[in-house]
Design a protein that fits this description.
Length: 311
Amino acid sequence: MENTQTLQVVEVQMPMTAETVRQHVNLVQRIMREVMKPGEHYGTIPGCGDKQVLHKSGAEVLRLAFHFVPTFSITRAELKDGHRDYEIVCRLMDSRGTLIAEGVGACSTMETKYRFRTERLCPKCGADAIIKGKPEFGGGWLCFGKRGGCGAKFKATDPAMKESRAENPNIADVYNTVLKMAKKRAFVDATITATSTSDIFTQDLEENADVEREKPPATEPRKDDELPEMISEAQRKFLFVQAKISGLDNDALKTFLKEQFGVESTKAITAVDFDRVLEGLKRMKTQPEPESEPEVPSEEDTEKTEGPSEG
């Protein structure tokens, strides 16, 4: 009977020499100098000292330089009221499939920046329709009619204009954001471990960076939080002329604007709505055109008949 023996070859990983370690460190520092950009790939957080924070884009540069291949294991936990937790383990392999390092990351919709949204409600009608007024129109705050507001205006220093915090009513909208955040945290953690750069970078401060750079949709400023371009004084004058032709006095014009367009003053009409307002006035024409051009009410008169002044 023939005896068969199996020979097993074991590859022994020898310790890195001091010169090899020095080359590794020099490579990271050279990448930082020649490839990475401060503020884009890494940076400091105001008020958190001088320790550099490694951003996801910086971790991707290091992954490319060292030929790491990432894999991710995702664990999801369903919480009450539709909330959700994600825990992710990132494993970085070399080109031969050898595990180099692991990183962990977690994120939850219960975190303050995802769970809550800020809002500024109109103290008169209660609508979430407050927008900032442009300085050239008096600044302050406006309860914007196009958002279902009442058209009321408030001074910039009005204490009633404080922001309040409320539960995010559309928590599912941030599921993907939370998943991506957990993945990013795990990836950055694994990269710092794999490259042995914890003396250069940190991730703990990245939680503060998340708040500054990656606000979720529920708390992001809306694109139209600035008052849109309004009609010119000449266009306002033309509307008063048309209102006169259509048999509307100032009170009737105010009622028409509020019922049809949700604003109480010609000053609150946006440039894009000018044609619609004009056409609406023309359809109400009940009188022949006057021989003389009517005067536009003074600022004092319009404040009395059209609602609160800019402020």
